[in-house]
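Regression test attached.
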Amino acid sequence: DAGVIQSPRHEVTEMGQEVTLRCKPISGHDYLFWYRQTMMRGLELLIYFNNNVPIDDSGMPEDRFSAKMPNASFSTLKIQPSEPRDSAVYFCASSSGQPNEKLFFGSGTQLSVL
Amino acid sequence: SQQGEEDPQALSIQEGENATMNCSYKTSINNLQWYRQNSGRGLVHLILIRSNEREKHSGRLRVTLDTSKKSSSLLITASRAADTASYFCATGVTGNTGKLIFGQGTTLQVKP
């Protein structure tokens, strides 16, 4: 299995632009998570899905952030409009079976908003 | 919000020595997990210990869990330079199906 695949690996954009991050979970996994990692705040859970349905989006910082999971093999995290404080590494992770089981992380998207 | 607090924030040891990292948390948990992150990479799962377990081993890793003190420790024995990484604890919070909350991490440097 190829593991969790994220794209792009790096994204540099200007303030105000729309940013879309993509994730392909491991086939058969029914949980998908989006995390954000910064030096100041560490790893923050933004949102997670179970069977393509958003379960908890309480970590989404504000309305500029949105996430979708149109099918079991694809998810997007969109920031519109982007701001410099959104600069971070965004990780997607997936897991299977029971809740709280081990996560498989993608390599992350390094986002820089200038 | 971050539930886990890890101690120390940074640790530097010589190859061959043991490394111990601690994690404290605040709420009831289903399980506690440890992950490793190499610089510039995603996190990799190391070990999971359930709330009804007290100790678990995996190779050179030993994890303990004390639910009465809401704390866990990760011991890496006979460390190697390749163990240099950041280590995070993550808690599966009771009642939050699927949600894992990560601590701030411990940065371990193993000097050859």
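Expected vs. actual: identical. The radius of gyration of chain A is 13 Å.
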